[in-house]
Input
Amino acid sequence: MKTARSLLMALAIACLALSVTSGGLTGCASSQVAPGSEAFVVEAEKDLRSAFYVVDGFLEWELANRPQAGKDVTAVADDLRAHFPGYLKSAEEVLRAYKANRTAENKAALGTWVATLNSAMIQSLKYLPQATANAAYAKAGNPAQ
Amino acid sequence: MDPITIIAAITAASTLMEKGIQIIEERKRHAELTPAEEAAWDKFVAEQLQKPHWKLSE
Output
């Protein structure tokens, strides 16, 4: 049963990581965009929403596995709980400002906020496998790491 | 392993896979969000932020 649980979690994490990394980050993507749309904006919107999905998933996972996940993982999760909503709100405000007024200054500001959210997303992805490993370690009857 | 733990594990894994599918769908888009889509997204985020997993652990 432990093996099945580990496989299930590994599959879920792989699916999540693949879905994020397969899309690339802002500035790296070369996807075509619909007429009237700007590739930079489309990619920024995708990145903001992807970052939220990943962090949201990580926090939900952390809560469900808190006893086994480890205090360091909970500390990272709490840091995201405290700060990520504000980052997202700021990023979306800058995004809307850029969509309304497409200046180089607004574009640079948007790029900075997208990078901030991507960093939070990567932090979540980084801790997911470790949290899974700690949970498996604890389940095997070992003390918390 | 007790049934509740098994259900919790499956639910957690399902949640992550669900997020992965949402991201895949998101990344298929080729157009900027419309104001209506932005409003729907804001509503979704606001609802998510009210859920227990967004509350601080302490």
Remarks:
- Residues 3-26 of chain B form the longest helix (24 residues).
